[in-house]
Amino acid sequence: MLIRLLGPVEIINDGRALEAGPPQQRLVLTALAADAGRLIGTETLIDRVWDQAPDGARRTLQVHLSRLRRLLDTAQSNDQTPVRVVRRSGGYQLDVEPDQVDAHRFRRLVEQAHERHRTDLERIKLLAEAMDLWRGPPLSDLPGQWAATVRQAWQQQYLDAVQEWAATSVQAGETGPVLPLLAGLTAERVTDEPLAGAYIRALYAAGRTSDALDQYAVIRRHLAERLGADPGPELQQLYRQILAADPALTPAATEAHTRWTPHELPAPPPAFTGRDGELARLTSPSDGADVLITVIDGMAGAGKTALAVEAAHRIADRYADGQLYLDLHGYSEDADPVEPAEALGNLLHGIGVPSAQIPDGLDGRAALYRTRLAGRRMLILLDNAAGENQVAPLLPGAPGCVVLVTSRRQLAGLDNTRRLALETLTMADAIALFARRAGGHPPELVTELVDLCGRLPLAIRIAAARLRAHPTWTLAHLVERLRDPRYRLAELEAGQRSVAAAFDLSYQRLSLPARHAYRALAGHPGPELDEHAAAELLGVTPVAATQVLHQLMDANLLLEPAAGRYRFHDLARAHATTQRDLRDRPERKEADARP
């Protein structure tokens, strides 16, 4: 749960905004949250809520507090730190972690930025994170003198943070992100001299001397017209320094200061086994003359992410400017595929660009992203991609970076990429993976088990987890349960992991004709078929059959062991057969026929 005060007052729970009640009730919440974790006297609360306390103020305050208690108690979930209004002797207290209140998190981040051991880049990152919490004038929907006083104080804290962030960024040579924000703020606060000074310094540092002088003329005019005053001594000194091209105004940035270095890779996969040939390809040295982009594709459960993360950790030290990681949710049960613009926003955050400096449109974000990556050596891992259109805007435009992309699709439409088609494990590696997960067992049974699992890493890990979860089972018992192909997929399920669910996600991304073909082709009696057999099963021409076969191949739901010959992986065939059987049930047909 989050309580947001830096803008309109909001309570956010599980991503949803809760109705916090009428203005006075929101004022009570704010009065407590502003001093989260501290006892607030009853009279102090009354003074904060009412400029002139009415008769019965204590009783009305208790009504608001009771409603807040009910609201917060109803919204609690088991995995959250509880937020409660607590009655203490002499007053009330909001029990909440400070970071659950954006105003307190803002102050903590600014205080961390002031710590003496921080580098310039760390200060920039912390201040940018603090500024990202700002949604507009704080407590903007609350009436009263207390709210107005707090609003003014917090606005000044924000402006101080902006000016510190701007000065540190300019010193580090990063003027690009600073200028748009300062331009907007100075347009709103036309007589704010410290803010104008920060903007003028940034313009001059960016090489825009004439614009810096023009901006000085603008604030001098506003001060004369509105206040009848001249600029103060500091602003006048800055003006003279610009006219004299004072070297002191030129930032002495170094490479170490100008760049934020992200380290976003997930932890290396535990018990990673095999894939020596694939790892050799992915970790082979690159001369850096081009952007090296590798697409790792394969069927559901083949271990694409594990391979990519393992390879990324092995070469991470070659890329001094850091590593970016982003799950694109191309095939996720609980999330839709990430839109390219949103993905670019996340990547720009990863390289230190604050939200206020990220353009709204896809083209603007892609241009800024390519600009920021130019001249850098970075490793970028784009995991679980849905398709070419999602990935293309996320690729760097200049040499020096390496990009690993994982997807269930082949992504053949991407230019200048190399493909690594990830097949099932070798028998030796499949046996070794099971042994690492489940310990020693009779070799002949282990061989049969991994064969029943189709040497698919996900299926092998699930089988090992099933065995560990049932201490009374023997390996022979588990193998016996897996031998019947009708129930094999049902057995390959443990906790949140399921082979059937993994194949379901691939199946659901298919077009309707491809789904029909997937189900129908599972009925072919032989292990392989060609386009003529497929055409007969589907009732279409061989040309049309070839097109749909290629769609299934692109989704890695069908294999091509030889030119013009196609076959299912055993578990994919089992899944397709299950889908066909479900489709053929009378109750399903009846449901499909309904309008």
Automatic annotation (TrEMBL):
Task: Quote the InterPro entries the UniProt record gives.
Answer: AfsR-DnrI-RedD_regulator, BTAD, OmpR/PhoB-type_DNA-bd, P-loop_NTPase, Sig_transdc_resp-reg_C-effctor, TPR-like_helical_dom_sf, WH-like_DNA-bd_sf
Give the region (Disordered) as residue ranges: 576-595
Taxonomic placement: Bacteria, Bacillati, Actinomycetota, Actinomycetes, Micromonosporales
The ranges the UniProt entry gives for DNA binding are: 1-96
Q: Which domain of life is it from?
A: Bacteria
Keywords annotated in UniProt: DNA-binding, Transcription, Transcription regulation
Which stretches make up the OmpR/PhoB-type domain?
1-96
Q: Does the keyword Ribonucleoprotein apply?
A: no
Instruction: Tell me the organism.
Output: Actinoplanes hulinensis
Q: What's this protein's family per the entry?
A: Belongs to the AfsR/DnrI/RedD regulatory family.
Which named protein is this? Winged helix-turn-helix domain-containing protein
